[in-house]
């Protein structure tokens, strides 16, 4: 079976359409002309990804996000094969806050925090210097209800914030941000930021943890049964060289509104780079703008979402179980 033109664009009501002709996100489904008995062999999907790699990367660069719907991706192993087919290098999950478990190969669970908790908008691992360039998500079990992964274009948020709060954005650009988080020894699955220091730094040895933290530019302050991590000042606004535009590349809203558990106070979790407190009313207005500009397409089993982590922020809505969304991080 020919894999040429296996992918065709489709329209969904949730997509946003911008004046520059971009539709966000791009949504691709199997070409009906390439189906046999209304199906497409999984092996043909992998071949099509490999043969269309340059075109798919170009589309990702143009739109920031591609949702693949209707393809026979059934299991975590299938998803791992899809990720491998793209040929992106794997990025180890070192320094991230979310509790995750390895499932198979390069595939991890997405944030395992409780279903009643929202996960605020963020660029993946924006609070550390080494972050993934691309993210994959895969819906293995679709939610009972809710559980969407809203996405939003980062440069749109920068432009709106710069227009409404120029002084605030100027200070962000001047000072950056400092992120502070207290980690227990082991993972706390009841917390959206409950990753313990052992899994954060992939070691049980405190001296090794300190070495790995230092490579990230992170300071550690050990306490009786936990450790305080201090990252920054680190830029809150980046320049996307490929697209030649500034982006809202930070975890400010996520930290300020969501880094809360028995050990952490979200208001203290993130400050300006000079240590000054952030203005709450601006943070919550930024959250409103993020919601307003976002796209939330309901998950269906087999969906694969590919994000350019420099171009797009993502979040997670609360949900009624079951729901199982898997992830993979790439350089």
TrEMBL record:
| Xref: Gene3D superfamilies | Clavaminate synthase-like
- Keyword Oxidoreductase listed: yes
Q: Which domain of life is it from?
A: Eukaryota
- Provide any one GO MF term from the record: oxidoreductase activity
Domain TauD/TfdA-like: start-end pairs = 36-326
**Keyword terms, alphabetized:** Oxidoreductase
Cite the Pfam families for this sequence.
TauD
Name under which the protein is recorded: TauD/TfdA-like domain-containing protein
Name the species this protein comes from. Daucus carota subsp. sativus
